[in-house]
Specification:
Layout (H helix, E strand, L loop, with lengths): L2 H14 L14 H13 L5 H12 L3 H6 L7 H8 L8 H12 L1 H7 L7 E12 L8 E4 L5 E13 L7 E2 L3 E3 L11 H12 L9 E4 L6 H9 L3 E5 L6 H7 L5 E9 L2 E14 L8 E10 L5 E9 L8 H9 L2 H13 L15 H22 L1 H10 L2 H14 L5 H10 L14
Parallel strand pairs: 1-6, 6-7
Antiparallel strand pairs: 1-3, 2-3, 3-4, 3-5, 7-11, 8-9, 9-10, 10-11
Bound molecules: zinc ion.
Length: about 425
């Protein structure tokens, strides 16, 4: 049991360096406690976690915030919001850097390596806050049909995914927010350029293949990736790529077919591809490889159809794997955003908005909690045992909340052991201080 304490030590170092807006009167709560407290509620998946720990602290003199997270003193919710508003989410990058190192190490390589030990990183934008009342200078704005102005936040998420693997690992996102000196409102395509400028070089050891929807299959982004030697698989719709589809219209693509048995049914997967296709009109158009993919049922009816453009060389040995990787892009919607919004992380819940960074920093801490959960699910045996004992994800976090509400556990191994065995060590039940 080394990973979780070392991740927490890294987070503590990062949170200690958050700017302290308390001029002159530093107060009796350490800067690290604000970041760690906010993180703890995302990690434990309960907005009530801190309140329950405060109650426990009253009765026991200490709580799981101290023993598990190293928080010396639990600040009030408002105090946390006030103090974190000045913390730029970019300060959390080293914690995500640690996740990138895990992705480069053998256990996660085995889980996530595809296309010859490469890492698939899916890009996609998602909205995580929207209000007609609250807002901050980092909000984007839009006018609703009723004439009201709505403030909202979106981010470009980058997530390591792999076909055939249920886990996903979020990396540091790029927040879509008003940019200094920009005339137009910020957008996903600009955000992806900033993301790549900040992280592309550092992630090169993972040999990333970037996945994205049709929006990213455009000349500037394809050129940006080609210039830096990076590869991509992007959805390519006919409706937004007229020149490309005119070019391939009538061409004879190469073909490959596979029959796949699914229970009693047999489906046919047809792959077609053409190399060196211009992405758009004009002499300077980037050349890409186009892949069309269809699934037919036994009666020859099309059940599913999609097309991509890619920089990867396509042949009859590689086409099925490239297509499977292209299809893994949906995992950022289904297994990242859906989980983040509807299964415990409450990404769209307003935990606090602030005036500078708060909304973004809380979202980044929430994503970090998700990244830790995925990493622990994959490599930490004690965590895996506790997780398996609960069977369902929701039960696991319900058990976490119940146990930590009544008992102070001295360490993570003791706590995870209790979760895995449904047994609380008797000595822990005798620590109640009698006033
Ligand atoms: Zn805002």
């Amino acid at each position: 049991m080394e990973l979780l304490p070392s991740l927490l030590a890294g987070l503590r170092t990062v949170c200690s360096a958050f700017p302290d807006p308390r001029k002159g009167r530093r107060g009796n709560i350490a800067m690290a406690d604000f970041g760690l407290s906010a993180f703890a509620l995302f990690f434990m998946q309960s907005a009530s976690f801190l309140a329950f720990q405060r109650a426990l602290e009253k009765g026991h003199g200490h709580s799981n915030c101290q023993t598990l997270f190293g928080i010396e003193k639990i600040p009030s919710d408002n105090y946390i919001r006030d103090m974190l508003d000045a913390a730029d989410p970019a300060l959390l990058q080293p914690c995500f850097g640690r996740i990138e190192q895990l992705l480069a190490a053998p256990p996660l390589r085995r889980a996530f390596g595809r296309l010859g030990d490469r890492t698939l990183i899916a890009w996609d934008g998602t909205e995580y806050f929207c209000s007609q009342k609250l807002g901050c200078p980092q909000c984007l704005r839009r006018k609703r049909a009723n004439g009201k102005i709505e403030s909202y936040h979106t981010m470009l998420a980058a997530t390591a995914v792999a076909p055939g693997h249920s886990k996903v690992v979020p990396l540091f996102p790029e927040f879509i927010a008003p940019q200094d000196g920009a005339e137009k409102q910020d957008c996903e395509r600009n955000a992806v350029k900033r993301w790549h400028a900040k992280h592309g070089e550092r992630l090169r050891p993972l040999r990333p293949v970037y996945l994205g929807d049709d929006l990213f299959a455009c000349q500037p982004i394809v050129k940006m990736l080609a210039d830096s030697g990076d590869d991509f698989i992007f959805t390519c719709k006919e409706s937004s790529h007229k020149a490309l589809y005119d070019f391939i219209d009538g061409a004879a693509p190469e073909r490959h077919e596979e029959k796949i048995r699914k229970g009693k049914a047999v489906e046919t997967r047809r792959y077609r591809w053409i190399a060196g296709v211009p992405l758009r009109d004009g002499k300077d158009a980037a050349l890409v490889n186009w892949i069309g993919f269809e699934i037919f049922d036994r009666n020859g009816r099309i059940k599913y159809s999609i097309a991509w453009v890619t920089s990867l060389p396509v042949n009859q040995h590689s086409v099925a794997e490239i297509a499977a990787c292209g299809r893994a892009r949906w995992k950022i919607e289904n297994e990242t955003f859906n989980v983040m919004k509807n299964h415990g992380y409450e990404l769209e819940h307003n935990f606090g908005h602030g005036e500078t960074f708060l909304a973004m920093t809380l979202a980044a801490l929430n994503l970090l909690a998700f990244a830790w959960h995925s990493a622990l699910d994959l490599v930490e045996p004690k965590w895996q045992a506790a997780r398996e004992a609960a069977a369902k994800r929701s039960s696991f976090f319900a058990h976490i909340l119940t146990l930590t509400t009544y008992v102070v556990f001295p360490s993570w191994p003791t706590f995870l052991e209790a979760l895995a065995t449904f047994t609380i060590p008797p000595e822990l039940l005798q620590t109640q201080k009698i006033e």
